[in-house]
Amino acid sequence: MSKKIVTMGEIMLRLSSPGNSRFVQSDSFDVNYGGGEANVAVSLANYGHDAYFVSKLPTHEIGQAAVNSLRKFGVHTDFIARGGDRVGIYYLESGVSMRPSKVIYDRAHSSISEAKPADFDFDAIMQGADWFHWSGITPAISDAAAELAKLACEAAKRHGVTVSCDLNFRKKLWTSQKAQSIMRPLMQYVDVCIGNEEDAELCLGFKPDADVTGGKTDAAGYKGIFEAMRREFGFKYVVSTLRESLSASHNGWKAMIYDGKEFYESKRYDILPIVDRVGGGDSFSGGLIHGLLTKQTQGEALEFAVAASALKHTIPGDVNMVSVAEVEALAGGDASGRVQR
Fold this sequence. Notes:
The chain is an alpha/beta fold and about 350 residues long.
């Protein structure tokens, strides 16, 4: 059964160097549109939900192209305010093997970063909604966007909406000190907290006992921190992805979830080769929201999320273009990649 799910944030124009070429080699760029919460909305629309994306975009043609990129996947754009001067841009150079990917942001003064509370009627937006999702990228964009995130969370709580947050720390946007001053107070509105070990430390000040760069992602190192985060902020679920970055084109991928009673660790996927890892975390959040809304247990919800995200790593662009059936097939054990005739 389809649910009304609202996400809010910035959608950007992504310009990527073709294939694995470097910026300095490129005479052209591939065009995609994406951004944390927009990517989550696309996943949820693909799973059959009524997904609404809230943002602000200019009235010019590039702003319209960003709106159209959401509409073609069935995302509702009724609550996108129009106005302001620009669509944020980011440039992506896709790494391979031991060469890491690189992202260069050109997003200052984007429409959403300068949006005002009057641009949105959050009570109307949250009316009848089942779920609201935001990420730490939104309040990092600007103080104005941080205020919008707070107002949206308050409205969600007034309407009894479940709230999830992907912590998503971005060091190019703000410092850990600034992040904690904004993010910690916002956690009072959050039911489902999603992040990885770096996000939890830099956004909230919690550090797990795990050496992730060295590939030591033993779940035991996370149990104490999950319990402490749940005690301090009252989360219903604490969720962490565990990425082993063996190279830019080879990752191990799994996740953990804790509901105050049971720790559940998902199966691990060996992703090789990675086609495009941008949006991997967003595809996980989208899968988790669908799973928690439709599955019987947190374990089943987590397995759906991890499988959905593993599949995203095989798809170029920001967004995950898979169906529920395709994710279920992988979560159920079919990772052969055999041709389906």
